[in-house]
Write a structure and sequence with these properties.
mainly beta; five-stranded antiparallel β-sheet
Length: 543
């Protein structure tokens, strides 16, 4: 029943020598295909997504014409089918996303609405906990903005020209609708179909098909504001943002053969194009389906060219570093089947791909050609300045990190160096304290430098610095004197103690000033404070 097309348990195995497969710098762990599953309109499998639990277990969600399948891929050479659910009517497309320990699914056909799965019992079982059909019965795409806990529904039968917004943060198992607004295009019609959407920090990047690519502010989910747009050359299908949020990469589905476009989100101008057909020069009209960005790598599912991976450390000059063709029998570009989805976000580096005919592929990039795997980079404001924390999952030939700072997000200057781990296959943690940040916004990035001088960049992060200098211009006071802070430096919490350790005052709410009570006895007191600037203890001398 389950046919294993090919297994390569050793990731270092070169695939270029394997008959019938066309690959470069990518290895196959395994391929799962059940040829008994129902085919609908020529499609047997559709979308693929992933989930990782708190213990490091990795799982794949695979859509078929009628079913939703859950796999344990913690051992990618031997994936295990854990659960199978009937979706209802057959559908050529299903879409999945995860939030917390929940998975959400929709279908293009039928009346399934939003199906909610609880994943907290993995690897043992998956539980279907809800199916909501009140807001819509079918939809093409969903996206979850983790920063605000909102699920966005695109291409629904009840609001195809806008987005339905559900709150998954408050009650993940039963999300409630908080917005459903038709989107008015800038200088265009008010009924342009929304095919797909990507959202970050309440800013929605919508693919409106032939109407173009539009950006909306959804801070108020009932009253989104159109911010900007660009009109491309074809049907704007889907998009993803670079890690620093400066660029978007979108795919145009038809007419066949259009390249991926890289646009600068400040100018909304195309700054680069990406197109490398595997059948060139004889055939050139390969078609991208869905792009995804992980750090400085771009992963793309191509209908008839499989999975392609690009280095986009410089978004103005992307270059391909690997590919794997899930349909090696293709000899021309004449359709929209085969590699429909790719999920590249597993910490292990395993890449899941779905082929409409050949099922689930588990792949691995053999040499990512990036010196470090970035796991996190975060600036935190503390009393002494801005502390930078970052972590890597692996390092190769890594000499050092150069810390760069900017006050505008564009012009950077180096301010420090931190030694790297050289070569490492385990998580590494780093930190550095900027003791002299500039007043206001400080933009940071890390330039990772190899021993041979090659370099790569981290994501761009920002922190606000408002030093708490005004409160302590003096520390000698009289009864009735006020200790004042500017509004932007207000204390979130203060507590005052005697030298014997007795607490004599506490405030748990923000305040801009504190007045010394008339009944206090002259002497020395300690004021412990917490603000957005950090924490500290100051001496108060009362005369």
């Amino acid at each position: 029943m389950h046919k294993k097309i090919l297994i390569a348990a050793l990731v270092g195995l070169s695939l270029q020598s394997m008959p019938g497969q066309q690959a470069s710098n990518m290895a196959l762990w395994t391929n799962w295909d059940d040829n008994t599953l129902i085919t609908y309109s020529g499609i047997q499998y559709n979308d693929v997504w992933g989930y990782s639990d708190q213990l490091g277990g990795e799982y794949v969600i695979l859509g078929t014409a009628q079913k939703i399948l859950f796999f344990n891929i913690s051992n990618p050479a031997t994936p295990t089918l854990i659960a199978s659910f009937n979706g209802g009517a057959s559908s050529i497309w299903r879409d999945f996303k995860t939030y917390g320990h929940y998975a959400y699914g929709v279908a293009d056909q039928g009346t399934e609405g939003l199906i909610v799965f609880d994943l907290q019992n993995l690897p043992n079982s998956v539980t279907k906990v809800n199916q909501i059909t009140t807001d819509f019965q079918r939809a093409h795409n969903i996206y979850i903005d983790g920063s605000s806990g909102r699920l966005y529904v695109a291409g629904s039968n009840t609001l195809s020209e806008g987005l339905i917004v559900l709150d998954v943060g408050a009650n993940p198992s039963s999300p409630a609708k908080i917005g459903d607004t038709r989107l008015d295009l800038i200088g265009g019609p008010s009924n342009a179909y929304v095919h797909d959407v990507y959202v970050r920090d309440d800013i929605a990047y919508c693919s409106h098909g032939y109407s173009g690519f539009y950006v909306y502010d959804f801070s108020n989910s009932d009253n989104p504001i159109a911010l900007d747009y660009t009109i491309g050359s074809g049907y704007n299908h889907s998009s993803w943002l670079t890690a620093d949020g400066q660029y978007a990469i979108f795919a145009e589905e038809v007419p066949f053969g259009l390249p991926l476009r890289v646009i600068n989100l400040n100018s909304m101008q195309v700054v680069a194009s990406i197109k490398d057909p595997l059948l060139a020069p004889q055939y050139l009209n390969s078609t991208p389906h869905n792009p995804f960005v992980v750090g400085n790598l771009l992963y793309v599912s191509y209908y008839e060219d499989g999975v392609q991976v690009y280095n986009i450390a410089n978004p103005l000059a992307p270059y391909r570093i690997g590919y794997y063709d899930t349909n090696p029998n293709n000899t021309s570009y004449n359709g929209t089947k085969n590699n429909w989805g790719v999920y590249p976000f597993f910490a292990s580096g395993v890449i899941a791909a779905s082929d409409t005919e050949y099922g689930l592929f588990l792949l691995q990039l053999q040499n990512p050609l990036v010196p470090v795997q970035w796991l996190s980079f975060e600036p935190n404001t503390v009393q002494a300045g801005i502390e930078l924390h970052w972590a890597t999952g692996s390092e190769s030939n890594n000499d050092y990190f150069e810390i760069q700072r900017s006050n505008d997000g564009y012009n950077f200057l180096p301010i420090a160096q931190v030694k790297g781990a050289g070569n490492s296959a385990i998580r590494q943690h780093y930190h550095w304290l900027d003791t002299s940040p500039e007043q206001g916004l400080n933009y940071y990035r890390l330039k990772q430098v190899d021993f041979d001088g090659q370099y790569d960049f981290s994501s761009l992060e920002v922190a606000h610095w408002a030093p708490c200098r005004s409160a302590w211009s003096k520390n000698v006071f009289q009864k009735g004197d006020g200790i004042n802070w500017p509004a932007e430096e207000s204390m979130e919490e203060i507590a005052i103690y005697s030298l014997q350790g007795q607490q004599i005052y506490q405030s748990n709410s923000p305040l801009e000033s504190f007045t010394i009570p008339a009944h206090w006895i002259p002497g020395v007191y300690l004021l412990q404070w917490t603000s957005k600037c950090g924490q500290g203890v100051e001496k108060i001398i009362l005369e």
